[in-house]
Specification:
By secondary structure, this protein is mainly β. The protein has 3 helices and 14 strands. Helices cover 12% and strands 39% of the residues. The strands form 2 sheets. Strands 1-4-13-6-7-8-9 form a 7-stranded antiparallel sheet. It has a 7-stranded antiparallel sheet with strand order 2-3-14-5-10-11-12. It is globular, with a radius of gyration of 18 Å. The termini are far apart. The chain binds 2-acetamido-2-deoxy-beta-D-glucopyranose (2 copies).
Length: 250
């Protein structure tokens, strides 16, 4: 096998290695594992928010540098005010990079808010919010974050809802060099941005609040070996050694 064929093979192997995200094999319960309940085939998980300080968060075991992550998600039904269900990618450690889908609950019968944001070296302030054109609690819908060196695209059921281009040449921070992990989580928030300006309150008598994730698809470039994949690989190895983040919002 010539060197270039070997390289192609290794790239394909790296791409393929993370395509199936069985929750037992690929994910680690990070925050409050007792609130995660796995489907029998481990391709789905329910995350419960049981009280104001006990939600749940899972993280993939392997970070990635560029690629697409998708999940089918069914959001908390009924009165979900004050709950935030999240599907996102983030680096670990300080001065983090992050790309988010955050689903902000509401009173029964009122629409969710789909909140998108992007952080590069801790700089966020790039929120854009959407109202869904369907009831996201009635069934599973497919949410995708696609991250390349040129742009980040957020998709809902295959429809691009937001594009954030890399404008680093105009001094807009953009995540390019540090591998991110994929996360699913549910948490409680009393912030103005999650309570429609303080108008809605969580009704804890309705707890536990449960969000369901299924068929997570990690179509990503792994950041593990082989070294032929380039300089980014080393960064991936370093991030394995980084301490896990403390429990934080999202
Ligand atoms: C929340 O629930 C956890 C168990 O999951 C319990 O340990 C904790 O004391 C509870 N906290 C509050 C504020 O009720
Ligand atoms: C979700 O959408 C992505 C992107 O269109 C696709 O690759 C993936 O297969 C879809 N997931 C499911 C479970 O249909």
């Amino acid at each position: 096998m010539g060197r270039s064929y070997l390289l192609v093979f290794l790239v394909i192997a790296a791409l393929a290695s993370l395509a199936i995200a069985n929750f037992h094999d690929e994910w680690a319960a990070e925050g409050e594992p007792q609130n995660a309940k796995y489907a029998d085939d481990a391709n789905g998980v329910s995350l419960s928010l049981v009280n104001s300080s006990s939600g749940c968060r899972l993280r993939t075991k392997t970070p990635f540098l560029y690629g697409s992550i998708s999940s089918l998600i069914k959001l908390v039904p009924g009165d979900s005010a004050g709950t935030v269900t999240a599907f996102y990618a983030s680096t670990v450690g300080s001065s983090h990079d992050e790309i988010d889908f955050e689903f902000i609950g509401n009173e029964a019968g009122k629409p969710y808010t789909f909140h998108t944001n992007l952080y590069a070296t801790n700089v966020g302030n790039k929120e854009v919010e959407f109202k869904p054109w369907f009831d996201p609690t009635a069934g599973f819908h497919n949410y995708t974050i696609s991250w390349s060196s040129c742009m980040v695209v957020w998709y809902v059921d295959g429809i691009p809802i937001r594009v954030f281009r890399n404008e680093a040449r105009n001094d807009v921070a953009y995540p390019t060099s540090r591998p991110m992990y994929s996360y699913v989580s549910i948490w409680a928030s009393t912030g103005a941005w999650t309570t429609h300006g303080g108008q809605v309150k969580t009704d804890w008598s309705k707890a536990p609040f449960v969000a369901n994730f299924h068929n997570v698809n990690l179509d990503v470039r792994g950041s593990g070996p082989p070294a032929e994949l380039g300089g980014h690989v080393a960064a991936g190895h370093r991030s394995h050694a980084a301490p896990p983040p403390t429990i934080r919002r999202g």
